[in-house]
Specification:
It is built from nine helices and four strands. It has helices spanning 13-26, 40-46, 56-73, 88-95, 108-119, 128-144, 155-170, 192-199, 209-213; strands spanning 2-8, 31-37, 178-181, 184-187. The chain has a four-stranded mixed sheet with strand order 2-1-3-4, with helices on both faces. The model has no long low-confidence stretch (mean pLDDT 97).
Length: 223
C-alpha cells in the first residue's frame, strides 16, 4: 500500500480542487492518504513569497482559472464572499478532530467539511455563526465516533498546527496542495497526472530526470 501525505490549507482553491479530484487520480491503486493541515502563509513567509491573491493581476487570474477548472472538472465551486481570508479558525477546527494516534491529521470527511465551508455557497468563510455551526457539526462527528474533541483554541491544537507546518517546511514544501509519496513532492492540482504516472510505474521516474532537475546550476540570481 502506498502512503501519501496531502498537505493543505482550506484557503487554497487549488487545494480544494485537488482534494475533489484525488480519488480519480488514485483509482485502481491501494493507497492510504493522510490529510495534514498547514498554515500556507507560513510557507510563503519562510520562502519569501507572496500568495497568488496578494499579486493584483495574478489574483484576478487565479479566480478566473479556478472557476473554469471547477466547471471543466464538474466540481462545485463558488468563490467565497471575500478572499483571501484568515484560515486559522478552519485549520484549528480541523485539528480539533485529530486523534492521539494521528495528531496532525484530519480524516477525509472532516477535510471535506473544511473545504466545502470555504468553497461552496459563496459565503463568508470567517463568519462567526457559520464557524459555530461547523464546530457543532464536527463535534457531533467526533461524538458519533466516540472520539475525544480538543478545544480549537487550546494549546494542544495550536501545537498540532505548528508541528504540521514545521514538518512541511522541513520537507521543503513551498505551497499547497503538496502531496508527498516516497520522498517525492508533487505540488499543485496540475501535478495529479504526474502523481498517477508515478503510481503506475512510469519509467521516467527511474531515468534520473527527477534527481537531475535539482542539480541544474543557477545562471543568474536577482537581488
Amino acid at each position: 500500500m502506498h502512503d501519501i501525505a496531502f498537505y493543505y490549507d482550506p484557503i487554497s482553491p487549488y487545494a480544494y480542487l485537488a482534494f475533489e479530484r484525488l480519488p480519480e487520480a488514485l483509482m485502481g491503486h491501494s493507497v492510504c492518504v493522510r490529510y495534514k493541515p498547514v498554515l500556507f502563509a507560513a510557507l510563503l513567509k519562510a520562502n519569501g513569497q507572496l500568495g497568488p491573491a496578494e499579486i493584483p493581476a495574478k489574483r484576478d487570474w487565479t479566480y478566473r482559472q479556478v472557476s473554469w477548472l471547477a466547471q471543466h472538472h464538474g466540481v462545485p465551486l463558488e468563490l467565497p464572499a471575500a478572499h483571501p481570508f484568515n484560515p486559522l479558525a478552519l485549520l484549528r477546527l480541523g485539528l480539533a478532530t485529530a486523534t492521539d494516534d494521528a495528531p496532525g491529521e484530519t480524516n477525509r470527511y472532516v477535510t471535506s467539511q473544511l473545504f466545502h465551508h470555504a468553497w461552496r455557497g459563496g459565503h463568508n468563510a470567517t463568519d462567526a455563526a457559520r464557524l459555530g455551526a461547523l464546530q457543532t457539526l464536527l463535534q457531533d462527528h467526533m461524538a458519533q465516533r466516540n472520539k475525544l474533541w480538543n478545544p480549537p483554541d487550546g494549546e494542544v491544537v495550536k501545537q498540532r498546527l505548528r508541528t504540521n507546518t514545521d514538518e512541511a517546511l522541513a520537507l521543503g514544501l513551498f505551497g499547497v496542495p503538496a502531496l508527498v509519496l516516497d520522498g517525492h513532492v508533487f505540488w499543485g492540482l496540475d501535478a495529479l497526472p504526474m502523481l498517477r504516472a508515478y503510481l503506475d510505474g512510469d519509467a521516467w521516474f527511474e531515468s534520473g530526470a527527477w534527481e537531475a532537475a535539482a542539480r541544474l546550476p543557477v545562471g543568474v540570481a536577482r537581488r
